[in-house]
Amino acid sequence: MQTTRRELVKLALSVASAPWLLHLKALAAPFTKMVKITAIKTLALDNIGDTCLVRIETDSGLIGYGEAGYTAQAARAIIETMKPLLIGEDPLAIEKHFVQMTGAQRPYVAHIPTIGGVDVALWDLAGKIVELPIYRLLGGPLQKEIPVYGHGMIRNMLDKGECRAWAESVKGAPEGLTTFKFTDLPPAPGSAPINRAPRVAGSPVPNTFLRSGKGGFPYSTTLDGDDFRRAGKGYMNVREAVGDDIDIAMHCLGQYDPRSAIGLCKAIEPADPLWIEDPLPTPYSEAWLELKRSTRVPILTGERHQLVEGFKPFLDNQVVDMIHPDIAYAGGITACRDIGKYASLTRVPVGFHTGPTSLVQFYAAMHVGAATSNLFKVENGLGAFRGNHEDMAVGVKPALHNGKFSVPEGPGLGLEINEDWLKSHMQKGETWWG
User: Fold this and answer.
1) Whole-angstrom Cα distance, residue 272 to residue 235?
2) pTM for this structure?
3) CATH 3.20.20.120 domain range(s) in the chain
C-alpha cells in the first residue's frame, strides 16, 4: 500500500514518539517544516588544495554538503562563531542565514570563503528537503548543458612540435573541449620547463602556477622585452597548432604591474586569445581602467573577489569583459546568483572558477550556471589534472560530452558522495568529520 505525503505527515503528528516511530517522524519532518540544523562539521582532504568540505546535519537525518574556500583547521574556528546563528534553525531560510552570516560585526567579522561553503550546504539541504535539484530552486534551467573549458598542459610552448602533439591529443579526446587556458609565460632559455603536473597535496600553490622563467615564486611583477617576445611566440605556436578549432586564453595570477600587463596583452593579441585572466593585482584600481583602454584582448577577473561588492567597481567602470567568481570564495550559491544578476545589467558574461576543488563545488557551479542568463563557461573540475575526483561520486562517474556537462538531476546538488573515497583521501591527522 502506498502512502501519500499528506497521510505520512498526519500519521507522524498524531502518534507518540515511540522508538519504532522515529524513522517515520524523520521521513515526515521535511514536509511539516520540522527540520532543524543540529550540527555543522568540516573535513580536510588531501587532494582539493586549500579548501575543505562542509557538512550540515539535521534532526530529520538529511545532510547537506558544501565546500569552503579555506583550510579545515581555520574554517572550523570560524564556523564555531557562526553556530549560534544556525544551530536549531530552519535550513530553508537561506536568505535569512546569508544576511546574518555576511552581516556579522566585530568580533565576529564575516569570513566570506567559509560562509560560501556553509551556503552551498544549505542549498544542498533545501533541494533534498523538497526533493528538487538546486537549479530548479534558483528558477532554472535556462540551460541544462553547461559549457566547460580546460587547462592547456604544454610543458614548453616554444616547442612547435610539442604544441602540435598536444593539439592532436585534445582534438581527439572524448571530452570534446574546445577552450583551454594556459598558465603564464613560456620558460626562459636555459630554465626548466613549466611543471604542469597535478597539484601536490600540501603545496602552497598548484605546481601549474610555479613560473620557471624569471622571478620564480614569489613572482617578479615587471616583465621586459624578452618576456613579451617569448609570450608572443609561445601563444602563436599554440594558435598555429590548434588552428581555428580551439580557443586559447592566458591565465595570470594578479602579479603584474600595468606596464607588464599591457605588454603581455600586446604580445599575445595576434594569437587571438579568448581572454587574459587576472594580469593585475586583485583589488580594483585605476590600473584596470588603463589596461582596458590599452588593449583589445578580452579581460577576465573574479576568482578572488567576494560578494556583489567585490565585483561592483569592475562592472560599474566597465573594465572587464567577463567575470569568473569562485563559488565558495565569492560567498556561495546565494552570492553567485546575485553577482550574475548584477553583471547582467551591464551585459557582462559570467563564468565560474572551480579549481582546485572537489565535485561539491563543481556541481554547485553547474546548478548556478543552469540558472544564469549571461553564462559564459565553467572551469573544468574533472580528469587527471584535477585529481580524478570523479571517484568521489557513487554510481555513474561524471563526465564531459562535447565540451559540456549535464546539470545533475538529483535532489540538491545531485551528488551522492562515496564515503570510502572520502576516508581514503582525508588529510593526515584528520578525524572523520571532526
Assistant:
1) 9
2) 0.88
3) 145-416
